[in-house]
Write a structure and sequence with these properties.
327 residues, alpha+beta, six-stranded antiparallel beta sheet, four-stranded antiparallel beta sheet, 37% helix
């Protein structure tokens, strides 16, 4: 019995079907790898945003503000009883000169208009009383928190002059600042991960550009105020922690009880805001390596928003000046 072999056409068709099957399997595996990488990147972004928002929430809820002395009751009593009796007993011209009239006891020259040119990073503006000062892209708040044991140990064994950072001391009143530093700047907070990379990949060192990202700076309030008022802005910019290089932008809004304000100064407002809205924008920064195409395939920016209520916040009283400026 003669056994027939495969013909040339059958061999060609079999090889073509095998090649097509291998191509389909390869494309399926590549699609699965890209999809899983994008999903993993999205999950990591969500976890990172949740952790950062929780950290900001803890700092804002620990905000400290000294309530001003309310002398309205005393002034009304003096204006109604003592002031009226004195004004009726003496000459009206002398009463007007002394300023004891009931209509002139309450000053109305307090301006609550925010400073539209607020820049906490390069300005020398400081708060006279513990509180909150912030703009749309930066925030500075004084918090009340007892120092931990490791902070005492770090304060005794650290050498801030060697790294160019400001010296911090353990205290119960800290000034916490949040802002996003631009990438490529010389004076800034370096990435702590650069110190553990190989020599060929690391860009750390004196004069090396720093990466961009969210910076959190926590210093003693007296040390922070002294650095700003004594011209130590350069050292202040290099002090802090680079929280996440994935943060492209951050935005703050402050609720006064009626509308959202783009700026806040507790010295002018005489109170902390009732709530603060924090908007984080996460995304992948451009990289130079050739393998970045897989990670950057779905590196579209994502925005996360959270409204944080401040326990120490209260409504800003509406005075006559604000009523006149409102439309």
């Amino acid at each position: 019995m003669i056994r027939r072999g495969f013909t040339l056409l059958e061999v060609v068709l079999t090889l073509a079907m095998a090649a097509m099957l291998m191509a389909l399997i390869g494309s399926t595996l590549q699609f699965y790898a890209v999809t899983m990488n994008l999903r993993n990147l999205e999950v990591r972004r969500i976890h990172l945003a949740a952790s950062i928002l929780q950290m900001i929430s803890d700092d804002l809820r620990a905000g400290l503000h000294a309530e001003p002395f309310d002398d309205s009751t005393l002034e009304s009593f003096l204006a109604g009883a003592v002031g009226g009796a004195v004004e009726g007993a003496i000459d009206p011209a002398i009463a007007e000169t002394l300023g004891i009239g009931g209509s002139d006891l309450m000053p109305s020259d307090l301006s609550l208009e925010p400073d539209l040119s607020l820049d906490l990073i390069s300005s020398t503006m400081t708060l006279q009383q513990p509180g909150l000062i912030g703009g749309q892209d930066q925030l500075q708040i004084d918090i009340s928190r007892l120092p931990r044991l490791e902070q005492w140990q770090m304060g005794q064994g650290s050498d801030p002059d060697a790294s160019g950072k400001l010296a911090d001391i353990p205290s119960d009143i800290k000034t916490v600042t949040y802002y996003v530093q631009p990438p490529g700047s010389i004076d800034g907070v370096p990435d702590p991960l650069q110190s553990i990379l190989p020599a060929g990949l690391s860009q750390s060192g004196v004069g090396a550009p720093v990466p961009g990202g969210l910076v959190r700076r926590e210093l003693d309030r007296a040390a922070n105020k002294w650095a700003i008022e004594s011209g130590g802005i350069a050292r202040l910019l290099s002090t802090g922690d680079l929280i996440a290089t994935e943060i492209l932008a951050i935005e703050f809004s402050y609720f006064d009880g009626m509308i959202w304000q783009p700026f806040w100064n507790s010295d002018q407002m005489q109170a902390l805001p009732l709530a603060v809205q924090v908007t984080l924008t996460l995304g992948e920064r451009p990289r130079d390596d050739a393998d970045a195409s897989l990670a950057d395939a779905g590196a579209t920016a994502q925005t996360f928003v959270q409204i944080i209520q401040l326990p120490a916040g209260r409504m800003v009283p509406m005075n006559d000046l604000m009523m006149e400026t409102m439309p």
